[in-house]
């Protein structure tokens, strides 16, 4: 049988299936899928260098927005404004592509940590990172993977291997 987003098992009731992958070096963009709906991918041509973000309604599983923020050549201010504008109860999925950390400052890292991330404080130049959290959650998210950029262990010259993650996000209850 095939499960939503191609994950390895069916999700329980009142959960949303998701699967995501970080970018591969600076060649293949990240991919984010929720409930069999590909929200971001190279094929959809809506991914870019930096941090790619998909917002999903925590009650319905419906896609709300997708954006990417260039954390190498861009400015962190629009990213901070975007993070501040996320409504409570929103599921937030993030994946890096190329470099997601150079322009990140303390304020941006704190806002991402408030969504449930624990790795964001250590995210460095060209690290690969995928994360799924939520606005208004009071706990650390179990959905996060981070691979450090390390020239001795990198799979691609100058970049670590892709990080992939799948799971079942609990639906927001009133």
From TrEMBL:
One of its GO terms (molecular function) is carbohydrate binding. GO terms for cellular component: extracellular region. The keyword Secreted applies. CDD domains: ILEI_FAM3C. InterPro entries: FAM3, ILEI/PANDER_dom, ILEI_FAM3C. Keywords: Disulfide bond, Lectin, Secreted, Signal. PROSITE patterns: GG_LECTIN. Residues 49-136 form the ILEI/PANDER domain. Belongs to the FAM3 family. PANTHER family: UNCHARACTERIZED FAM3. This is Protein FAM3C. It comes from Cuculus canorus.
